[in-house]
Specification:
CATH superfamily: Metallo-dependent phosphatases
Number of helices: 8
Oligomer: single chain
Helix content: 25-40%
Radius of gyration: 17 Å
Shape: globular
Length: about 250
């Protein structure tokens, strides 16, 4: 069983299509989305429709949740973007049944997905939708101890847009540190698969991961996409702050 794990698309259709083209070349069996299909980016509907049609499992992200309910803890830029996203979903011009199908899909997304020793969430094993686990959290032994206590073996997550592996021994291993291949061991691990639509690790290329259950290897993939086209779309939408386009070029 090979699973492609994507997360944090954030309405970036150019990034999503580039990643899916790469996924199609990797002979994967299933495609999982770990949340945040929408928010920030200029193409929430196209991204949502693509995820609905392509993904075998999709998890609720905090921006997906914010499109449904009152946003919690969003900064002004994110807040304006989610209100604009909500307006696009509600007034897309499609037939009412199609609009309702999108809202129904979002409203029925699970907060976590368990498959034996594999747990899939958006945020963390403690707060599945909206807890950040940053690389620097390895220095917070209490927090990490609690989080590892919540998983049986392996947890795959997104949310921070920063790919890498957390170990119970207090290490954070970036994809570069392991030459983009991490071999699962008997030890527990929390694995952030990175972001498709808005990387924040200083690398502007989209990031996703492939979990090969047979070999026990997690492969991190970086994919080039048309950043400039996405930027121009953002700049053309007054409700989306220009910084949301600017940051894509630097992966921040």
């Amino acid at each position: 069983m090979k699973r492609a794990l994507i997360s944090d698309i954030h309405g970036n259709y150019e990034a999503l299509t580039a990643v899916l083209a790469d996924v199609n070349s990797q002979n994967v069996d299933r495609l999982f989305c770990l949340g945040d299909i929408v928010g920030y980016g200029p193409d929430p509907i196209r991204c949502l429709d693509t995820v609905i049609s392509k993904c075998d499992v999709t998890i609720l992200g905090n921006h997906d949740q914010a499109a449904l309910f009152d946003p919690d803890g969003f900064n002004p830029v994110a807040l304006d973007a989610i209100y604009w996203t909500r307006e696009q979903l509600e007034n897309s011009g499609d037939n009412p049944g199609k609009i309702d199908d999108r809202w129904t899909f979002l409203s029925e997304l699970p907060r976590r997905h368990d498959e034996g020793k594999f747990l899939f969430v958006h945020g963390s094993p403690r707060e599945a939708t909206n807890e950040y686990v940053f690389p620097e959290d390895i220095y917070d032994s209490r927090k990490m101890g609690v989080l590892f206590g919540k998983i049986d073996q392996y947890c795959f997550q997104g949310h921070t847009h920063m790919p890498g592996i957390f170990s119970p021994s207090g290490d954070f291993i970036s994809p570069e540190d392991c030459d983009y291949e991490y071999h699962l061991t008997d030890d527990k691990a929390m694995i952030n698969v990175g972001s498709v639509g808005q990387p924040r690790d200083g690398n502007p290329r989209s990031c996703y991961a492939i979990l090969d259950e047979e070999t026990g290897i997690v492969n991190f993939r970086r994919v080039q996409y048309d950043v400039v086209s996405t930027q121009h779309k953002i700049y053309a939408i007054p409700e989306l702050d220009n910084m949301l386009g600017d940051r894509l070029a630097s992966g921040r």
